[in-house]
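Internal ticket #5521
Category: modeling
Description: The requester needs a full-assembly model to guide mutagenesis choices. All entity lines are attached below as received. Residue total reported by intake: 588.
Assigned to: D.W.
Attached entities:
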Amino acid sequence: MNTATIIVTIILFVIIIISMQKFLSGGTGIVILKKELKSIFYSPIAWIVMALVMLLNGFSFIAALEILRKADVDETLIGYTFSSTSFWLTYFFIFPVITMRLFSEEKKLGTIETLLTAPVQTIHLLLAKYLAALVFYFIIWLPSAVNFFLFRISSVDNANAIGSFLGAYAIILLVGIFNISIGCLASSLTKNQLVAAMACFTFCMLHFLVGFILQDLPVPESWQGFLFYFSTVKHVQIFISGLIDSRQFIYYLSFTILILSFTYNVLEYRKWKT
Amino acid sequence: MIKVSNLSKQYVERTAVNNISFEVEPGEIVGFLGPNGAGKTTTIRMLTGYIPPTSGTASIGGHDVFSESIKARQKIGYMPENVPLYDDMRVREYLRFRAELKGLRGQEARQGVNEAIDLCGLKQIRRQMISSLSKGYRQRVGLADALVNNPELLILDEPTNGLDPNQIRRFRELIKQLGIRHTILISTHILSEVEMTCNRVIILNEGKIIANGEPNDLSRKLRSASTISIELKTSEEKVKDLIAAIAGIKKVSKEHQSGEWGYFTIRAEPGNDVRESIVNLANAQEWPLREIRTQHATLEDAFVEITQANTSDS
């Protein structure tokens, strides 16, 4: 980690904090955020999604425990859990489910018009919806953290180091921040929730696969550094090893800001279309 | 309250609103009338800041709807066409959300919601899910939403669309009642509505304002350009030409012939009372005349006359 990356990380955080602060003081943003969270948690969908994700996480967890029990290995419990096939198979289904209705439902019902003709700034609407999805995403992962936490108190050997634990959750949240912005964009583009879900899934998966496939291609040495940026799998491995790398923060956060700004322009599209 | 000058909205394939200007004074109830597709909704969407104009300006209470959009929007209670609502919320919860969205907090919000509920008669259904409401109640919830922060200006886009006659009557009463405290702009294509509730009407056709005045004035203007129907006992072909030759008559058309009696409709030019000349002619030609009647123009006639005269393809 050199000084340049540290500075950029700090700048990014400052931008995010400033925009959030403006958002919080605006008032209407909070009102929408509250309403969004209510409509997520008052509907059965949220609880079904949480239960199913818990089930799948539990499955990955047990699979990881099996590996640890069978042989002497040099990875941690968390490492095995988050690199298992069952984890990656299910991971990308979460994003379409929690983002697909964000804007497409408003468009379909026509309530986007009542929202944007109330004294509400588009940017506040966007941030409120994005944050609501993000909060839900965070909450989805809480039960799995309890898994590790309980295991940590009860187990004698240091099967899950604290660095590994923090790193794993940092990267899970970071990748989530990025992928949810993709979901926001997909949802703002269409009235149809199914199309939004499919587009979100495709682009999240595509981003993942590009990093996944390119890293194994025989590319010139000089490209390796560049391709590393796309490789979510490698990022996860690095973070799980306990190394919290600022480059990944910059990569995911700056892309999130870019994609949210696309979403903003999609929402404002009606203002400049002819 | 509303000041619109040279407002236009140009889409690639058509001009939705073409250089319109009008003003609405505080306290007026203005009917925004026009056939479907005349540009009413587009104009309203520009007024509410939902879409920007291609050219021209509009301001609400002195705030430009585009450059000071938030301030202008704070003065407006807007009920869009077809009343979009969240189906997964309860009536009171929804109104509370809308009140907070419009900047009311705590006690203020509670009071605004309660007043809107009372005014729109939503007391019995305030705990119901919006998805379970009938069309009439949805409409009232939409109106309550528009009213919740007690805005100076109410903009209602086709508020009686899809209601049954009883509901329409109740809705009109409500609007009249609201007109005491608010400036109201109602868009509609139902004429009787405007005639009964509005003190001014703006008729829009193909994106242009073609009439702007009091409903009575508009129909009176047409009444002077009146239509006369007569019944004459004759079947001669030259009748039409002879009547048409009288000074001040614009058009004579034969409606039908029933036995010996012929039925004619005569359009006279504005300000000319031609009835005497017609009677004299009938006497001179010895056609028995059994009825001569002036048809009183309603706003409906005004509307049909004005919109058709201005529609290029008819």
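Resolution: model delivered.
Comment from assignee: Chain A has a mean pLDDT of 84.
Ticket closed.
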